[in-house]
């Protein structure tokens, strides 16, 4: 199988790292970056079928992220099936990535044993060695995957726990890569090296330096910033950004940089300006889980070697008491007689056919169609946000 490759198309700054356009390619299939992976549970995008998903983004660039905890129970079936996870779940025409943790739910701490990583599956916690993990990857056959690691660190983690996560993750990475290089099944798959270290810059740099010595990786994942999906939105920019920017200096510029989690659009722009290429769709997924629709207006422009995001003050409905510049909660009774689409001008299937009042009715009635319609809108809106980001970088490229 032809290996998957990442290449930088243009870097829009004078420094080594900064906002850039890139491509992830294999044969005739291509993903332009900055972009995001579509978050899945048990091999499916939550709330929407394969047929509905195709209508959300017909004939467009798609990359799925399959977290191990929600797919681990497929192992024995896929071993017999022998055609890989993406084929099994009906997404064989798209790229897929396998990651270690489910970023949308709480990651329980304290269950790892030495070099065994605790994975919480439907059948309970399972301790995974690197040998078993690589057996799983050979059965799943992903286009890319994150090597086994310890990532359950956050703002409250003590130094000893952070140091331990780096030491163990580095050992596991080395063992996984050795096994990868001997595997005929995975020779076309890309390896993602996980950078650990919590919020300790010294440990982050130590992790980055060790992993950067290996040239045969597809990219690097900034991991271990949080242990709970919903709390990511509250992490202050001035705490996480220095860790990212200082660590980035020790990574090769030609490799893909990834970060997962429900980061806000403002932080996503900051990450892109620091050189991050790939995200995931945890943010719109959690918005749907909270019965919310993404509605933020935004202006993007390129200035001073970076993208500037401005969000006008008219993003929230005038009658709302609590301002949330990114989303509205459709459970609010104020939408009982609101016969407008979720967002004026939005071209998604939900906004073309349905009103806030109808979706409010579906949600308060606990109808399954409610989160389906919210998912269609939120994924479409988030995807358009990234398309607009790429367009700003593309225009700047041609103006240079």
UniProtKB/TrEMBL annotation:
<keyword id="KW-0819">tRNA processing</keyword>
<feature type="binding site">
    <location>
        <position position="351"/>
    </location>
    <ligand>
        <name>Zn(2+)</name>
    </ligand>
</feature>
<dbReference type="Pfam" id="PF01702">
    <property type="entry name" value="TGT"/>
</dbReference>
<comment type="function">
    <text>Non-catalytic subunit of the queuine tRNA-ribosyltransferase (TGT) that catalyzes the base-exchange of a guanine (G) residue with queuine (Q) at position 34 (anticodon wobble position) in tRNAs with GU(N) anticodons (tRNA-Asp, -Asn, -His and -Tyr), resulting in the hypermodified nucleoside queuosine (7-(((4,5-cis-dihydroxy-2-cyclopenten-1-yl)amino)methyl)-7-deazaguanosine).</text>
</comment>
<comment type="similarity">
    <text>Belongs to the queuine tRNA-ribosyltransferase family. QTRT2 subfamily.</text>
</comment>
<dbReference type="InterPro" id="IPR002616">
    <property type="entry name" value="tRNA_ribo_trans-like"/>
</dbReference>
<protein>
    <recommendedName>
        <fullName>Queuine tRNA-ribosyltransferase accessory subunit 2</fullName>
    </recommendedName>
</protein>
<dbReference type="InterPro" id="IPR036511">
    <property type="entry name" value="TGT-like_sf"/>
</dbReference>
<keyword id="KW-0479">Metal-binding</keyword>
<feature type="binding site">
    <location>
        <position position="377"/>
    </location>
    <ligand>
        <name>Zn(2+)</name>
    </ligand>
</feature>
<dbReference type="GO" id="GO:0008479">
    <property type="term" value="F:tRNA-guanosine(34) queuine transglycosylase activity"/>
</dbReference>
<keyword id="KW-0963">Cytoplasm</keyword>
<feature type="binding site">
    <location>
        <position position="346"/>
    </location>
    <ligand>
        <name>Zn(2+)</name>
    </ligand>
</feature>
<comment type="subunit">
    <text>Heterodimer of a catalytic subunit and an accessory subunit.</text>
</comment>
<feature type="domain" description="tRNA-guanine(15) transglycosylase-like">
    <location>
        <begin position="18"/>
        <end position="396"/>
    </location>
</feature>
<dbReference type="GO" id="GO:0006400">
    <property type="term" value="P:tRNA modification"/>
</dbReference>
<keyword id="KW-0808">Transferase</keyword>
<keyword id="KW-0862">Zinc</keyword>
<dbReference type="InterPro" id="IPR028592">
    <property type="entry name" value="QTRTD1"/>
</dbReference>
<feature type="binding site">
    <location>
        <position position="348"/>
    </location>
    <ligand>
        <name>Zn(2+)</name>
    </ligand>
</feature>
<dbReference type="InterPro" id="IPR050852">
    <property type="entry name" value="Queuine_tRNA-ribosyltrfase"/>
</dbReference>
<dbReference type="GO" id="GO:0005737">
    <property type="term" value="C:cytoplasm"/>
</dbReference>
<dbReference type="GO" id="GO:0046872">
    <property type="term" value="F:metal ion binding"/>
</dbReference>
